[in-house]
Amino acid sequence: MAILAIASYSASAFAPVTPYTSKTSTTTTQLQMAEEIKAAPMVTGEQLETMLQEWDSPLVVDAYATWCGPCLLMSPEFEAAAKDLEGKVRFVKLDTDLEPQMAGRLGIMGLPTLLFLDKNDDMEAVEQGKAPMAVLKERIEGALRKDSIVDLANYHFFGGPMPTQLS
Q: Is the CB of residue 81 less than 8 Å from the CB of residue 93?
């Protein structure tokens, strides 16, 4: 008993005692918090449908899959572009494996696919049900870097110059 007390005493002399916390719950909470504050959050097909009906700003959709290498490489670039244009353009991610019906409706054939959508200017046709609320400005299949994503958004939504080279 005396040896145990000495070992415990000498260990506490060198290392601060911290209360035990579950690594699993801490990690889960950190992941949930990280997803909540992303500039380009994941959405369901239903949420995307609502965004397309209740239009408030231009929209860029990243259709991806978790097993897709180029999708994973582009993910931080997409998030960085979303942060650059935060408040001007809405960026969202759609997991095509979890939302196959929406991926089919959007005509997603390759991954990753970026969709640049804007509000339809022909409000008369929209109100009469002759035209959709959103208009597809461009579809890009393949991974892009942040600068190319930002340049395309500026071109399609804010009258910026047409990008001459995409990377």
A: no
